[in-house]
Amino acid sequence: MRDVAIVAFAQSAHRRRTDELSEVDLLMPVLHEVLGETGLKANEIGFTCSGSADYLAGRAFSFTMALDGVGAHPPISESHVEMDGAWALYEAWVKIQTGEADTALVYSYGKSSPGRVRDVLTRQLDPYYLAPLWPDSVALAALQAQALIDTGDTDEGALAGIAARNRTAAVDNPYAQLTGDVPAGDHLVHPLRAGDCPPIGDGAAAVVLAAGDTARALCERPAWIRGIDHRIEAHSLGVRDLTDSPSARLAAEHAGAFERPVDTAELHAPFTSQEVVLRKALGLGEEVSVNPSGGALAANPVMAAGLIRLGEAAARIHRGESDRALAHATSGPCLQQNLVAVLEGESAHE
């Protein structure tokens, strides 16, 4: 296995609406910033991979237009996943492992503002039994929250505390969309209140990966990917225990998360109840700093929020604020698909 690290991370300032910006306009400053951190030019990148969803843009192959922000001439080695950018990072990591590239640019973006994202996300559901009922993403998350309350794993007060902690942490995050004292508000779908749910907004993120000595030359303290894995639950919600996440636990096990304690965890938990599930599945105690960036409750650009969790964890290692961090990304309803990566600083590697 080759040593591969995240050597740079950049993201946009997440906003409720960016009507005046196209996807290319949203991406360009982020791409310039992340490449500027390394001093690399676009034509010096060995592989480029992106993550986005055509359903958000409302047109087929919308990701090809975003390539204008990268610069596809002269021809580049490029790929795309119809997933959160965390899975694009996984593909880029595999590409570097094969030896076909030493560096990779990974980016993702999402503009949720043009449509009704709660309805758009129903297109992920089983098309025969569940999708025709049109349960939106908040209703499904509420089912999960109620299951946790029924089993005694949490209550509405505890969920409100999770929201408050995340958004208080986000005060120090200049890119966050919601920060500070956010009212719990009315129930959107019982038992979830407005404060238990993520903000709807637009945003983009990018990271640069590099292998071995190349990473050390590009970054003073690379965030080494010691393990990375992703797993998926059964598609049908009716055959799952919504109070647990076996796929997240299995991904963490294969990523080596349980070999030694982590000091930081960036969890992609758009709903407060999902943090309860993930903390239990990943064995995270109170000694672990969870979502010091504010997490997805502070900013949740669909298709970029998972990549941001990896980037935020890596950035803390770059700054020397963490030695061993866990980063998590999810996709699909009720934590259906989960990716876990373990990142370490150079001192931990030695």
How would you sum up this structure, described in words?
33% of the residues lie in helices and 21% in strands. The model has no long low-confidence stretch (mean pLDDT 94). It has a ten-stranded mixed beta sheet. A two-stranded antiparallel sheet has the order 5-6. It is of the alpha/beta class and 350 residues long. The chain has helices spanning 23-38, 54-57, 63-66, 85-97, 117-120, 137-150, 156-169, 212-218, 246-255, 272-282, 305-318, 346-349, and strands at 4-11, 47-51, 78-81, 103-111, 187-189, 192-193, 202-211, 223-232, 264-266, 289-290, 324-331, 337-344. The chain contains twelve helices and twelve strands. The chain starts with a strand and ends with a helix.
Structural features:
350 residues, alpha/beta, ten-stranded mixed β-sheet, two-stranded antiparallel ribbon, 12 helices, 33% helix, 21% strand
